[in-house]
Amino acid sequence: MVNQPEMRVISYSPKYGEQTVAMWRESKERAIGVKELHSFENHLHFLNHILPDEYQIELAMLGEEVAGMIAYNEKEIGQLYIHRNYQGMGIGQILLDRAKAQSSGRLTLYTFEVNKIAQRFYEKNGFHILGRGYENEENLPDIKYEWARDLEA
């Protein structure tokens, strides 16, 4: 039996950029059934130069492998993706709990309507639907969710 390395959460570093983008793209494409619109290079540029302006980015690491990523600030989760081989192991929960703990007490996020797994995950974690049908680059219907610390049961 092979021991799996312990999961740790680190601040994003560009040295993990290519691995993070590959995981992100594969996870997203699998979740929504649509190929990524942007080139790998543009996606890497977005991760390294645009996303950090608005969000804190953290990686869930298993050894030197990126198992998941989250981008959040005190009011919103911009991205949350888990490597397809590690979904259902609690990694998303750990990352989400970190964002909740550092939030203002309220968080919003969007998820694609076709991504039923994400919807169940967010609803199980106290997120409530605020609206539907928002526009995005993929031209797919999405759902806006909100979590509030004071509404959590």
Description of the molecule:
This protein is of the alpha+beta class and 153 residues long. The chain contains 4 helices and 7 strands. The protein has helices at 17-32, 40-54, 91-101, 116-124; strands spanning 7-11, 56-62, 65-72, 77-82, 106-112, 128-132, 142-148. A hairpin with a 4-residue loop joins strand 3 and strand 4. The longest helix has 16 residues, at 17-32. The mean pLDDT is 91.
What is the strand and helix layout of this fold?
Layout: E1 7-11, H1 17-32, H2 40-54, E2 56-62, E3 65-72, E4 77-82, H3 91-101, E5 106-112, H4 116-124, E6 128-132, E7 142-148
Antiparallel strand pairs: 1-2, 2-3, 3-4, 5-7, 6-7
Condensed summary:
Helix content is 33%, strand content 29%.
Task: Provide keyphrases for this structure.
153 residues, alpha+beta, Aminopeptidase, 3-stranded antiparallel β-sheet, 4 helices
Estimate what percentage of residues fall within beta strands. 25-35%
Main sheet? 4 strands, antiparallel
Would you tell me the structural class of the helices and strands?
alpha+beta
Q: What multimeric state do the chains show?
A: single chain
**CATH class membership:** Alpha Beta
